[in-house]
Amino acid sequence: MKRKQLIIIGTGLSACQLAYNLLNDYDVIMLSKGDKQTGNTVKAQGGIACVMGQHDHLDSHIHDTLMAGSFLNDVAQVEKLIKNAPNVMQSLIQSGFIFDQVVGQFILGKEGAHQHRRILHAGGDQTGKRLTCHYHQLLQDKVTIIEQTTAVDLLKQEGRCVGVRTVNHSLERQDYFADAVVLATGGYAGIFQHHSNDPLMTGDGIAIGYRAGAAVKDLEFIQFHPTLAIGHQQRFLISEAVRGEGARLVNGRGEYIMADHPLKDLAPRDVVSQVLYTRNQQGEATYLDIRSVKGFQRRFPQITDLLHENSIDIKQGLIPVQPGAHFTMGGLAVNEQHETTVPHLYAIGEVAATGVHGANRLASNSLLEALVFGKDLADVLRNKPPMSPGTYVPEDLPMKVQPLDMSIEALKQANETYLGVVRSQTALKQFEKELRALPITTRGAIDHPTKTLERYTSENMLLVSQLVLQAALNRKESIGAHKLTNKEKQAVRQ
Ligand SMILES: Cc1cc2nc3c(=O)[nH]c(=O)nc-3n(C[C@H](O)[C@H](O)[C@H](O)COP(=O)(O)OP(=O)(O)OC[C@H]3O[C@@H](n4cnc5c(N)ncnc54)[C@H](O)[C@@H]3O)c2cc1C
Fold first, then answer.
1. pLDDT 10s per residue in the chain (494 long)?
2. Ligand 1 binding pocket mutation candidate from 8, 185, 377 (most atoms within 8 A of CB)
3. FAD-dependent oxidoreductase 2 FAD-binding domain: which residues (predicted)?
4. Counting atoms of ligand 1 from 1, which one is nearest the CA of 46?
5. How many C-beta atoms lie closer than 10 Å to residue 33's C-beta?
6. DSSP code of 249?
7. Å from CA of 188 to ligand 1 middle
8. How far does residue 40's CA lie from ligand 1's centre (Å)?
9. How far is the C-alpha of 300 from the C-alpha of 201, rounded, in Å?
10. What is the rounded CA–CA span in Å between residue 351 and residue 391?
11. Cβ(196) to ligand 1 under 6 A?
12. Is 46 in the pocket of ligand 1 (CB under 6 A)?
């Protein structure tokens, strides 16, 4: 009998976990815009939040997740995530993955807004790299991975998703059809000028899902991480785990910046980012003082390498930092079965808005989300009947593409200015006017005579920026990662 066909757009952790759990049930094709390591999974430094310690409790992890999310979370989804975490972690360990341990006990890290040490990690700060390697080994020769291939639009027939249209680096077009299509394309922090992400993470999944008619949710909630190191070559993340081990934020005079907050340097990310942003705006430089972290190079080997590459002297112990876009809570709206509002189209990982993160994500909950919900979607898809065989005649999508008539850099800069750490409704309205003034045509890259991969990306970035802007305009109160200026906060309260 012919096996069911599954297309997963993405090769990150959520995609790999799904594929691994469906090896016996589906023929799986996985697509990646770059090589198979492209995406944010490989960059993850902190680890995976999971209740493993004797003094910790599931209720405490649930509480911390809801607090971080300003209680805008979907409580049922949060409970599902956290209660399933220990079992999913056991399965990962049984599949051969090794977390850092000392004398048979897991070494548990601490990150911002967690009441307990509960971050499992591997190779110090190399959890993402090791997870990527582990899953790619498990999947080797068992799934078809197609690299350097960009999904540009979804294919629909009679209202349901039946496949995906792709282009490769030579701009050759290829359509793939399947019983189910899963978007696992990661987040959209790459639409900003300063961010910690893989530069390809510019929200393609949201754009192509939206064009196919899928609803979006919570797009205004973008987490800005307080500590992006300012290197010669690039901005790059310095994990919160570094502050968990004792590093402190200081100004140029060596004064502690977070001294007045009850949680000090481990206050929630939005709080710390806003403090640093305000100081940076006033012209003050901010630093992470790592001199009190014992065995820094051993505990954080990947960050140590990045610091060397960017000529930041570890011995001096002061890393220049600023906040930058890091994780996107919003995405394609999905139900408990991970299905978008388009039948047969599913979304998992950072591209999905499951409601677990609410208005802000608790640190190290996203690798967990990829693992728990990747497995959960596998359980859903395993029981689905195959689609009846037939000829696919894809219909036109409801929405056409608007080209970006400005440089990608200019758009990223505008997003940084208007949609960054602190927002103002007045400025958002100004941005809306500027984007409205861009010319509208209905001829997107796919039909354009001078189509390029950059053109596909820029069109998607424009659409995602417009959607984020709309969501930010609609969210009148200052909450979680959507921070309004103090003046506007007061105006809303009156
Ligand atoms: C620097 C950094 C550190 C982090 N540290 C942690 C941490 O310690 N703990 C934690 O929980 N979270 C962490 N995160 C967040 C976490 O890494 C991500 O949320 C998670 O890995 C996302 O996994 P994913 O499967 O959704 O997508 P990703 O791993 O981002 O993969 C996206 C995939 O989609 C593919 N793709 C995208 N668009 C297209 C397209 N148009 N066509 C074809 N393919 C496409 C890409 O090629 C890629 O394969 C960190 C993030 C960053 C940036």
1. 668 999 999 999 999 999 999 999 999 999 999 999 999 999 999 999 999 978 899 999 999 999 999 999 999 999 999 999 999 999 999 999 999 999 999 999 988 888 999 999 999 999 999 999 999 999 999 999 999 999 999 999 999 999 999 999 888 889 999 999 999 999 999 999 999 999 999 999 999 999 999 999 999 999 999 999 998 878 999 998 899 899 999 999 999 999 999 989 988 888 899 999 999 999 999 999 999 999 999 999 999 999 999 999 999 999 999 999 999 999 999 999 999 999 999 999 999 999 999 999 999 999 999 999 999 999 999 999 988 767 777 776 655 666 677 788 999 999 999 999 999 999 999 999 988 877 655 444 455 555 678 888 888 999 999 999 999 999 999 999 999 987 777 665 55
2. 185
3. 6-367
4. 8
5. 25
6. E
7. 10
8. 3
9. 24
10. 30
11. yes
12. yes
In this structure, the number of other CB atoms found within 10 A of the CB of residue 260 comes to: 9
Query: What is the three-class DSSP state of 145?
Result: strand
CB 44 near ligand 1, within 6 Å: yes
Domain 229-324 sits in CATH at 3.90.700.10
Domain with CATH 3.50.50.60 in the chain: 1-221+329-397
Question: Residue 157, class by beta-carbon neighbours within 10 Å (0-12 exposed, 13-18 middle, 19+ buried)?
Answer: middle
The pTM score is 0.95
- Answer yes or no: is the C-beta of 213 below 6 A from any ligand 1 atom: no
118 among known catalytic residues: no
Q: CA–CA separation, 22 vs 139, rounded Å?
A: 11
- Looking at the chain, which residues constitute the CATH 3.90.700.10 domain(s)? 229-324
Between the CA of 368 and the centroid of ligand 1 the distance, in Å, is 12
Q: How far is the CA of 187 from the centre of ligand 1 (A)?
A: 7
Give the residue, out of 8, 40, 175, with the most ligand 1 atoms within 8 A of its beta carbon, to mutate for a pocket test: 40
Q: Are 198 and 190 in contact (CB under 8 A)?
A: yes
**Across-strand partners of 478?**
none
Whose alpha carbon is nearest atom 38 of ligand 1? 185
**N-term to C-term CA, the chain:** 67
Q: Ligand 1: which residue has its CA nearest to atom 21?
A: 41
- Quote the Cα angle for 66-71-75, to 5°: 65
Catalytic residue among 118, 243, 269, 361: 269
1-221+329-397 CATH: 3.50.50.60
